[in-house]
Amino acid sequence: MNYNQKTGESDSTKVRLIPFQVESIKAQTNEIPSGVELIQAPSQWQQGFKGENVVVAVIDTGCQINHPDLQGQIIGGYNFTNDYDGDPHNFLDNNGHGTHVCGTIAARENNQGVVGAAPKAKLLILKVLTETGEGNIKDITSAIRYAIKWKGPNGERVRIISMSLGGPQDDPSLHHAVKEAVQQNILVVCAAGNEGDADSRTDEHSYPGAYPEVVEVGSVNLQERLSHFSDSNNQVDVVAPGEKIVSTYLMDQYAVLSGTSMATPHVSGALALLIEQYEQAFDRMLTEPEIYAQLIKKTVSLGYSKKDEGNGMIKLNSQTTVSTPPLPNLN
């Protein structure tokens, strides 16, 4: 175990952003992002399901809360880091990653910019990573427990936790917090990681993604081919678009990013739609296993190993089927 004299922390307690790639940044756009289209979120909108009032806790680098596409979408937040002199009420994003994730989940319909998968969902912003994308297990564990206990102004509760972060350490306190959330009927959605070697015979693990209780998300490109960087292991649950994903970014801008970090919020947004749809149909609150079961029904196998794709690609209009074998990823 290495020890960092500057921070006084062992390296094993550190958690970082899942590595991601900035493809481009642009000042303006007006589109439904291709990833949101690929998971068939617009078909749910047409049926009247937009994730209304479903609260998603985004545990990340914070959020630009006054971004034109995110105004009115933020229901609360907390800063667990030392950024902004440790002010707990300042959870602004000084990295960009968290704002991008938030846009994919819940960017609003405002006839400009982008639209998230669940444009009427609400976001609880829990900043646990600094400007450099670094954090520690203690703060992430605290953020999960904060999300479990949080109540909104009208009694709202967190239904989904979205985490596009990870580290190599299997930490008992982090695992226990994840289990607590699931026991409270909160779906915990995590990025699989970007250490993949395009070989399903070898496993790569990033925590908390590799815990069996979470919904672990791998990445495919916009042609629905497995991303070469996506981790493979026997805990992968689903895959979603994670390459060249356009979403909200700092300074009212938009960015195209790649990584399993970008796949994860597609699943978080999809779950918000499914919660609204099925709780309306059953006229009651569903348990975490019940909602997970509905998610898995909305997957299509792309023909890859279970360790690569889990149950398959999220397709909100579908019931589980098997498609033709994949073409090689030429990226």
TrEMBL record:
Highest rank taxon of the organism: Bacteria
CDD domains per record: Peptidases_S8_Subtilisin_subset
Keywords per UniProt: Hydrolase, Protease, Serine protease
InterPro entries: Peptidase_S8/S53_dom, Peptidase_S8/S53_dom_sf, Peptidase_S8/S53_subtilisin, Peptidase_S8_Asp-AS, Peptidase_S8_His-AS, Peptidase_S8_Ser-AS, Peptidase_S8_subtilisin-rel, Subtilisin_Carlsberg-like
Catalytic-site annotation from UniProt: 60, 97, 261
UniProt cross-references to Pfam families, sorted A to Z: Peptidase_S8
Peptidase S8/S53 domain span: 51-306
Range of residues in the leader sequence: none
PANTHER family hit by this protein: CELL WALL-ASSOCIATED PROTEASE (PTHR43399:SF4), SUBTILISIN-RELATED (PTHR43399)
Family of the protein in this entry: Belongs to the peptidase S8 family.
Name listed for the protein in its UniProt record: S8 family peptidase
